[in-house]
Each structure stands twice: as structure tokens, then as C-alpha cells.
Amino acid sequence: MSTATAAGRGFGRAAGTLSTGVGVAGLLTYVFFSLASHNLGAHAYGEIVVLWSAVFVTISVLHRPVEQFISRSVAEHRERGEPFGGTLRTAATLQAGICAMFFLVALLARGPLEDELLSGNTTLYWIYVTSVLCFAASFFARGYLAGRGGFGILAALLVCESAARTTFALAVAIGITEGQNAIALGVVAAPIFSLVVVPFALVRLRRPEEVAVGDGKGVDAKRLARGGAFAGAVFAIMLSEQVFLNTGPLLARAFEDASIAGFIFNVLMVARAPLLVFQGVAISLLPHLTRLRSRGDSTGAEAFAVSISTTVRAIAAFTALVAAIVAIAGPTLMQLAFSKEFDYDLADLLIVTAAMGSYLTATTLTQAALAQGKARHAAMAWLACAGAFFAWSLLPIVAEIDLRIELGFAFGAAVLAL
Question: Do residues 295 and 80 make contact, with C-beta atoms less than 8 angstroms apart?
């Protein structure tokens, strides 16, 4: 067996373990929204969707850059046999600054956030703010676990998060409690309960010689600058990613009302379902590719190329399978999952399915660019495509808001992949 093949199989096992956990977490997330949809009216459900979209956009943009910085840096240092304690301190400094900045901005923008976005609901506003702050610790743990190769524990963290959130919707469904706010509390409970795996991870994975730092206990200014530059580029990518995935419901809320936001959110679930499962591949792909690149030899380069090509081929096959399922029973499955509040058009679902394939391919190639140190170039591509998608979505004379978002997503994702 060649080194490249062995590395590919090792990555496949890691990605498979994590994808299983992410798949379970994704299923539980769907149960959460399905229970919410069946137990709330269209307007109240739409407000839950808006809350979740706002939380998800914010945490992805603010916290995932630090997560990916930790994942890439820890994997690189471990491959070279170097301690990575300095990386963790740098990441903690960046994360603390981000949280402080967010809290200040959230307080200053409380009026628009609470009154315009969250329909004047003070409880939803504080759930939004608290959730974003709590997710900071969860994403820090994700980056550490991915960089250390603790994918089984990382999968458990994601499952605990989704299970905690779904428990609140289930409590409403079976009559233990009732109302929109009870379901919304699951959004803030999720990141808190996800951290129950952290003590176990520290005991199992921590090695003092890896965390030790030989250049003093302070945060190195050059390391902080490099980390900030990398996190800044990933910030631009994450911001662009959320423009593609989550501004649809928010734009619908602005142009129409909360019920249309809920409809668009459900349609985009066709893309979100595979994306949730693919997170297992994406999270494990960056540290895997970073380790291969850090070897600096031909076998590492060969294994790098094999990993990318194998992943892209798997995406193509998966997209074809999803398209076949959607063509056979897409609208029916959507109504079974999210009640009969809305009617779903087959053409719309197929457009989003095609967009999903392009988007997954673009995400894979982005991980390769980050592993190669080309974060700035990747960020420029994402910003250009996301900006074009957003501008297109603001053109009401072209089509209805739902069709504009679907077509813009498909075309923008295709251009990004190319």
C-alpha cells in the first residue's frame, strides 16, 4: 500500500467517524425544526427560524475563523513535533477580543436587533446574545479536538449540542411546557451542554510536552499577527458562506414576512442537510491536508492530491443520488418533514440540489487553499461570489424573492467552484 493510499484511508476513517456524529447531530437538528414547525404557527415558527439564522450566521462568521486557526496550527505543530501552547494562547486572545467586540455591538444595536429582526421580543434578543457568547467556548473546543485528531470526541460534542437543543422542542411537543420562548431556549442551551465532553477530552488527549512553550508565557506578537491575518481571511470566507446559506430567510423577512422566511429556510434545507453531514469531512479535511503539506516531500504532495480528488468525486456521486431522490419524492418528503403549511415546487428543489453539489466542491477546494497558506486568495474568491449573490437577491424586478435566492445560490456556487 502506497503512503498516499494509507493517508487517504486514514483520512477516510477520521472523516467517516466525524461524519457519523455530524449526521446524527444534523438529524437531531431537523427533528428540532420539525417539532417546532408542527407545534407553532407559521409566524411563530418563522421567528424561531430568524433567531436561529441570526445565531448561526453570527457564530459562523465570528467563531469559525478561530476554530480553523486552531485546527490548522495545532495539526501543523504536531506534524513537526513542535509544542502548540502558544497557538492556544493566541487563539484565546483573539476569541476574547471577538466576544468583547460582539457584546458591545449587540448592546449598541439592541434596538434594530430586538425590534426589527426579532419582532420586539426581548427574550429572543437575550437568547441571541447569550447563545453567540456561549458558542465561543464550543468552537474553541472544536478547533482543538480537530487539530489533535480527537474526531470521536468532537463527534460526541456535536451530538450533545444538537440533542440538548432538540430536548426543548420535544418538551413542547409532549406538553411538558409550551410556547415559542420554550423552544427558543434550546438554542442557548445547546452550546452549554456540548461542553460536557471537554473534561474527558482534556484527560484523554492532553500531553504536557505538546502544550508547553519554550518562548515564554506571554502571547507572541508575531504569532498573534499571523493568527490574526489568517483568522481575518477566514472571517471573510465565513461571512461570504453565511451570505450564501443564511441571508435568504433574513432577506425574506425584510422583503415579505416571517412566514416566507420559514418557507425559504425549509427549501434551503435540501442543501443544508448534506452540508451538515459534509461538515464531518470539512472539519477533518483541513488538519489532514495541513499535516500532509507539512511533510514537505513528494509522498505528502501525492496524498494531498489524492485526498482532494477522492472527496470531489464522492461529492459528485452524492449530488446525483440526492437529485434522484428529490426528483422522485422531493415535494412529498418536504411536507412530511415540515408539515403542510407550504407547497414545494420540484423545480425549486432541484435547483437547490444542483447548488449543493457546487457548494460542497467549492468548500473542499477552500480547505485545500487554507492548508496551503492561500487564505487571502480564497477569501477574495468568496467575497466576489457572495457579493454578486447578495446584489442579485436585492433585485425585486427580476423574480419573486424565493426564486431569486434559489437561482442566485445555484449560479454563485457554480462560479465559486470553478
Answer: no
| Count of all residues that appear for the chain in the document | 418
d(CA 179, CA 173): 10
Going by C-alpha positions, the residue among 371, 366, 202, 372 that lies closest to residue 287 is 371
Q: Which residues contact 381 (CB under 8 A, 6 or more apart)?
A: 416
Q: Which of 269, 278, 248 is nearest to 412 (CA)?
A: 248
Place of cell 451570505: 243
pLDDT of residue 351: 86
CB atoms within 10 A of CB 96: 11
175: left (phi over 0), alpha (psi -120 to 50) or beta: left
169 neighbors 181 (Cβ within 8 angstroms): no
For residues 243 and 390, give the distance between their C-alpha atoms in angstroms, rounded to a whole number.
7
What 3-state DSSP class applies to 293? helix
The DSSP letter of residue 395 is -
Top mean pLDDT of 81-90, 119-128, 333-342 is at 119-128
- Mean pLDDT, range 254-267, rounded to an integer: 71
Q: Which helix (H) or strand (E) holds 35?
A: helix 3-39
> Rounded mean pLDDT of the chain?
81
Looking at residue 9, its pLDDT comes to 55
Q: Which long-range contacts (CB under 8 A, 24 or more apart) does 391-396 make?
A: 393/247, 393/248, 393/251, 394/251, 396/255
Neighbouring residues of 393: CB distance < 8 A, sequence distance ≥ 6: 247, 248, 251, 401, 404, 405, 408
pLDDT band at 209 (very low <50, low <70, confident <90, very high): very low
- Predicted confidence band at 365 (pLDDT cuts at 50, 70, 90)? very high
Q: Are 116 and 131 in contact (CB under 8 A)?
A: no
257: left (phi over 0), alpha (psi -120 to 50) or beta: beta
* pTM score of the predicted model: 0.75
Query: What Cα–Cα distance (Å) separates residue 238 from each residue in 56, 58, 244?
Result: 11, 9, 10
Nearest alpha carbon to residue 300 among 81, 10, 83: 10
